[in-house]
């Protein structure tokens, strides 16, 4: 569904990611892990057309989408939840959801009810300003806003960051639920063990490059991977 072939990209003249390749098959959950600052977010932004690409190719659903703008990718069914600043704090929950659909034609009431099915907790908060929601609720709103376009694939950058263990578990099970509804997922996670546990495959990045990849179970079972990248159980 998504195929990234040797992309090199950055923000200025400096390359932050170098010749990174990965692929995500339809229906999969794939997780990217790696140390802080190794370029995971830069890779996600590059897929979504938000960096300067200096080489490589990106294909989505069999089409070359290299260099396309975010709104063009949204029209093709790709949605993205950034790591930071992913809700508009001064807008209400409802307005945030409406903003998610801004690139699309047609009514959005049906789309909003679909999001509320996924995140029932948002239903009685529709008129509340997003900035006054809890961290977990804001994250659900950010994912909900990305879901409003009815995407075939979702890019999630550290969805569980800064959440309490309980809310984190809830969010991971919601991510699984979204995947079970047919949405393919590529995510970046610091909570690598938890993320790999719900993933089909994983990639490890280091210093802007591919380091290792494999079925999530194999990565979780690999003592070297555990020691270097997953921390204590
Ligand atoms: N908007 C930006 N402009 C310039 N450099 C950036 C920007 N965002 C990130 N970087 C740099 O890119 C490198 C990789 O960052 P990032 O992709 O955010 O890593 P990760 O998500 O793996 O922690 C870091 O050295 C960071 O300072
Ligand atoms: Mg990051």
Can you describe what's shown?
The chain is an alpha/beta fold and 233 residues long. The protein has a single domain (2-86, 151-230), classed as 3-Layer(aba) Sandwich (Rossmann fold), CATH 3.40.50. It has nine helices and ten strands. A six-stranded mixed sheet has the order 6-7-8-3-9-10, with helices on both faces. The protein has a four-stranded antiparallel sheet with strand order 2-1-4-5, covered by helices on one side. Strand 1 (2-10) and strand 2 (17-24) form a beta hairpin. Helix 3 runs parallel beside helix 5 (135-147). The mean pLDDT is 93.
Give me the secondary-structure topology.
Blueprint: E1 2-10, E2 17-24, E3 29-33, H1 40-47, E4 52-60, E5 63-64, H2 70-75, E6 78-81, H3 93-100, H4 109-118, H5 135-147, E7 153-157, H6 165-180, E8 184-188, H7 192-197, E9 201-206, E10 209-215, H8 216-221, H9 223-230
Parallel strand pairs: 3-8, 3-9, 6-7, 7-8
Antiparallel strand pairs: 1-2, 1-4, 4-5, 9-10
Helix pairs in contact: 3-5
The structure holds adenosine-5'-diphosphate and magnesium ion.
The site of adenosine-5'-diphosphate has 10 residues, from helix 1.
Give a brief rundown of this model:
With 233 residues, the chain is of the alpha/beta class.
Strand content: 25-35%
Report Rg: 17 Å
Helix content: 25-40%
CATH top level assignment = Alpha Beta
Characterize the largest beta sheet: strand count, sense, and whether it forms a barrel. Answer: 6 strands, mixed
CATH topology, which one? Rossmann fold
Q: Give the number of DSSP strands.
A: 10
């Amino acid at each position: 569904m998504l195929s990234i072939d040797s992309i090199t990209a950055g923000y200025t003249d400096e390359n932050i990611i170098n010749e990174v390749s990965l692929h995500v098959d339809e229906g999969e959950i794939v997780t990217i892990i790696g140390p802080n600052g190794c370029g995971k977010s830069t890779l996600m932004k590059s897929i979504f057309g938000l960096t300067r690409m200096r080489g490589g190719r990106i294909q989505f659903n069999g089409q070359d989408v290299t260099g396309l703008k975010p709104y063009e990718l949204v029209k093709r069914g790709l949605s993205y939840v950034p790591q930071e600043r992913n809700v508009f704090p001064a807008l209400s929950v409802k307005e945030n959801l409406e903003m998610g659909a801004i690139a699309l034609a047609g009514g959005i009431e049906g789309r909003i009810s679909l999001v509320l099915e996924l995140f029932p907790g948002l239903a009685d908060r529709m008129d509340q300003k997003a900035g006054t929601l809890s961290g977990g609720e804001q994250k659900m709103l950010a994912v909900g806003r990305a879901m409003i376009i009815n995407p075939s694939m979702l890019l999630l950058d550290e969805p569980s960051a800064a959440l309490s263990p309980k809310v984190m578990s809830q969010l991971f099970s919601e991510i699984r639920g979204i995947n079970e509804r047919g949405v393919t997922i590529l995510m970046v996670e610091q909570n690598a063990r938890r993320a790999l546990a719900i993933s089909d495959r994983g990639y490890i990045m280091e210093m802007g490059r591919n380091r290792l990849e494999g079925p999530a179970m194999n990565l979780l079972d690999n003592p070297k991977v555990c020691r270097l990248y997953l921390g204590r159980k």
